[in-house]
C-alpha cells in the first residue's frame, strides 16, 4: 500500500522558544513534515518561494515584515500555499486583516495542540479553519471589511510601501531600509515622502502612529523614539 503524502509545513515565528516547542510537537506527527523555520516575515516569504511548502504557520507580529504583509505576498505570488495565522490576538481587526491578506486559517496560541494539528489538516485539504472562540465575530467583521475595505488608510499603499512603512516604524534608518530592500537611499527617501503624502502624515511620528493603529507594529516607546531619530 502506497504511503500517503506528508503535509510539508513552514513554521514562521519570531520567538525561538515558541518555534522550537511547536516544531518538537509537530515532528511527532507522522503525517506532518517541518521543512523550514523562519524568524521574521521576510525570511518566511523567501523560504516559501524556495521550498514551496503545503502550509505556512504564520505568526502575525514579526520583525522586518509583519505576518499580514508576509501572508499577502505569499498568497498573491504562490496561491497554492495555505497560510494559517498563529496569534495571541483574538481582536477582530487582526483576524480580518489576516483573512483579507489570504490566510485560510486562524488559530490562537492558547488553543490545545490537537486543534492546531486539526487546522493543518483542514487547510491542506482545501478548507478554512478558525478557532471556535472567534468564528462568529470574525465572520461578521470580515463581511463588513470586504464591503468597506477602503476604510483603512493603508489601502492606498502598495505592498512595497507597506513594507517601508513598517521598517520606518520599527526604527530602521534610511540606509538600513535601503540595504534590506536592495535599493538606493534616494529611492527610500522618495518612497517615504510618497507614503507621507498618501497618509497625510507630516512627521515620522505621525507615520508610526498610523502603523501602530493599523497593526503593522506594536507600541513600544523606545522604538518610537528611535524611529523618530533614525531618518
Structural description of this entry:
The protein has 231 residues and is an alpha/beta fold. The chain has 2 domains: 7-149, Response regulator (Rossmann fold), CATH 3.40.50; 152-230, Winged helix-like DNA-binding domain superfamily/Winged helix DNA-binding domain (Arc Repressor Mutant, subunit A, Orthogonal Bundle). It is built from 11 helices and 6 strands. The chain has helices spanning 16-26, 41-51, 67-77, 92-101, 113-124, 135-147, 159-169, 174-181, 185-198, 204-213, 221-230; strands at 7-12, 32-38, 55-59, 82-87, 105-108, 129-130. A 6-stranded parallel β-sheet has the order 2-1-3-4-5-6, sandwiched between helices. α3 (67-77) runs parallel beside α4. It is globular and about 55 Å long. Residues 221-229 have low confidence and may be disordered.
What can be said about this structure in brief?
The protein has 231 residues and is of the alpha/beta class.
Index terms:
231 residues, alpha/beta, Rossmann fold, Arc Repressor Mutant, subunit A, six-stranded parallel sheet, 11 helices, 6 strands, 52% helix, globular
Based on CA atoms alone, the radius of gyration comes out at: 18 Å
Q: CATH homologous superfamily of the largest domain?
A: Response regulator
Number of domains: 2
**Spatial shape:** globular
Q: What CATH architecture of the largest domain do you see?
A: 3-Layer(aba) Sandwich
Helix-strand string: EHEHEHEHEHEHHHHHH
CATH topology of the largest domain: Rossmann fold
Strand order of the largest sheet: 2-1-3-4-5-6
Approximate strand percentage: 5-15%
User: Could you tell me the mean pLDDT?
Assistant: 83
Distance between the termini: 62 Å
Structural class: alpha/beta
CATH domain class name of the largest domain: Alpha Beta
Helicity range of the residues?
Answer: 40-55%
Tell me the number of strands: 6
What are the segments in which pLDDT stays under 50 over at least 5 consecutive residues? Answer: 221-229
> Major sheet: size, sense and barrel closure?
6 strands, parallel
Q: How many H/I helices?
A: 11
Amino acid at each position: 500500500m502506497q504511503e500517503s503524502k506528508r503535509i510539508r509545513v513552514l513554521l514562521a515565528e519570531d520567538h525561538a522558544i515558541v518555534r522550537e516547542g511547536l516544531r518538537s510537537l509537530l515532528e511527532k506527527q507522522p503525517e506532518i513534515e517541518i521543512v523550514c523555520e523562519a524568524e521574521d516575515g521576510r525570511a518566511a516569504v523567501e523560504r516559501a518561494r524556495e521550498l514551496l511548502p503545503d502550509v505556512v504557520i504564520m505568526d502575525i507580529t514579526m520583525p522586518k515584515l509583519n505576518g499580514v504583509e508576509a501572508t499577502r505576498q505569499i498568497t498573491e505570488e504562490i496561491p497554492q500555499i495555505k497560510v494559517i495565522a498563529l496569534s495571541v490576538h483574538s481582536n477582530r481587526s487582526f483576524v480580518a486583516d489576516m483573512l483579507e491578506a489570504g490566510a485560510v486559517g486562524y488559530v490562537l496560541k492558547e488553543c490545545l495542540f490537537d486543534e492546531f494539528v486539526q487546522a493543518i489538516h483542514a487547510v491542506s485539504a482545501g478548507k478554512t479553519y478558525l478557532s471556535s472562540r472567534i468564528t462568529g465575530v470574525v465572520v461578521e467583521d470580515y463581511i463588513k471589511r470586504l464591503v468597506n475595505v477602503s476604510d483603512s488608510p493603508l489601502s492606498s499603499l502598495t505592498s512595497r510601501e507597506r513594507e517601508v512603512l513598517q521598517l520606518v516604524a520599527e526604527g530602521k534608518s534610511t540606509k538600513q531600509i535601503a540595504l534590506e530592500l536592495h535599493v538606493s537611499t534616494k529611492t527610500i527617501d522618495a518612497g517615504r515622502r510618497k507614503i507621507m503624502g498618501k497618509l497625510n502624515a507630516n512627521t515620522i511620528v505621525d507615520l508610526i502612529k498610523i502603523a501602530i493603529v493599523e497593526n503593522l507594529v506594536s507600541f513600544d516607546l523606545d522604538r518610537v523614539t528611535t524611529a523618530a531619530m533614525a531618518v
